[in-house]
Structure formats: C-alpha cells, structure tokens
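User: Structure with flavin mononucleotide, tokens only please.
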Amino acid sequence: MKGRIKSVNAKMEHKINNRKGEYKVDKLFPSRWSPRAMSGAVTKEELMTLFEAARWAPSSYNNQPWRFIYSLKGTKHWNKFFNLLGDFNKMWVKNAGALILIVSKKTFDHNGELSITHSFDAGAAWQNLALQGSITGLVVHGMQGFDYVKAKTELNISDEYDVEAIIAIGKPGKKEDLPKEIQEREFPSDRKKISEIALEGGFK
Ligand SMILES: Cc1cc2nc3c(=O)[nH]c(=O)nc-3n(C[C@H](O)[C@H](O)[C@H](O)COP(=O)(O)O)c2cc1C
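Assistant:
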C-alpha cells in the first residue's frame, strides 16, 4: 500500500502530525486521533462500514461480545442518545452525525459462564472501528462522559450487558467553530514513553 512502511523492526523516529514515535510503525496508528470539530451528516452505509471493521476484532472463544446500539442525527432516536451526554460533551457532539453506544455481553454464548475478557474484547472492536474511521476520513471520538445508569434504562439494556462507552461519529469540521475552551484541546495528544508501559519481567 502506498506510503506504508516495509519493516516493523527498525528503531527509527517518525513524525505524524505533531506526534513523534520512538519506533517506526504503520502511520495508521499515529494518524488516528479524536477531534471534536465535526460537521455534516453520516450515512447508514458509512456506519455499517465501521461495524464491518469492528466485527473482525479477536475475542475470547470468538464470543464477539460487542453490541453497537446506534442513532443517526435527524432520526427519532437521536435525542434519546444525545440527552445521555454530560454538558461538556453536548457542546461539541451536537455537530456529530451519529452516536454509538457500545455494550458488551458478560457471558459466553456457548456455556453461559462469565467471560472475564468481555470488556477487553469490546475494546478491541472499538479500536478496529476507530481505525477504520480514521482511514476513511471520519471523525471517531469515544466518550465516558455520559449517564451509564440512564443509558441502561433508556435503551432497554438488560443486566446481561455492561455499558462500555458512547462513540461520536462525524465528518471533519472546522476547529474555529468549536467553543474557545475546546479549540485549545483540538490537537493530537502525546503518549507515555514505551519504557513506562512495557515492563520486562514484571513491576519492580
Ligand atoms: C473510552 C474513552 C472515553 C473517553 N471519554 C471522553 C469524553 O467523555 N469526552 C471527551 O471529550 N473525550 C473523551 N475521550 C477521548 C480521549 O480523551 C482521547 O482518546 C485521549 O485523550 C487520547 O487522544 P486521541 O484519541 O486523540 O489519541 C475518551 C476516549 C475513550 C477511548
């Protein structure tokens, strides 16, 4: 694929946006970030493409515990989803084209036993979705700033499922259209060093 690196083992600094990596990886990873500036509608087909990417995520026993409950802006479902959000998130999500609530099933389909990794698995699916959005030029922004209890009751979610996060999807918008305090946060963030997150042999 054009522009893609050939080797993954070269220790080489790279820079994407303002992000500087310690090792060279596919630009797919540092290119993805979570803007808040959005504009325009998102189609059902665009959403389905994101779910297509999500469903190829790995999961324990291939249980695929992720479920995506969605609403497109302009449909009768939108307000119910939007009203779950906290005030900060409402300020920028009003320009999104779709909202997705991710829940994960707590038990295995094949034996009904508790799956320890259901949230971990749903996290993998969310990352697939986010990367696919980034590749196709959509804004994909995860949120925990919403009412988890209300989400369960408003969207009819049984105790079989844990509520994980809400994702805002949109077309890219203009930073200048965001409230001033949000504009200041509109850039790809940095990360901890590899030495802080990769620990040979265990914690000291
Ligand atoms: C599960 C999850 C919850 C988040 N909750 C919020 C949120 O409520 N509001 C918000 O503005 N951003 C939220 N974010 C965005 C994070 O702040 C952002 O992903 C993080 O700072 C890393 O930046 P990047 O995604 O641009 O690389 C959330 C992200 C994730 C993955």
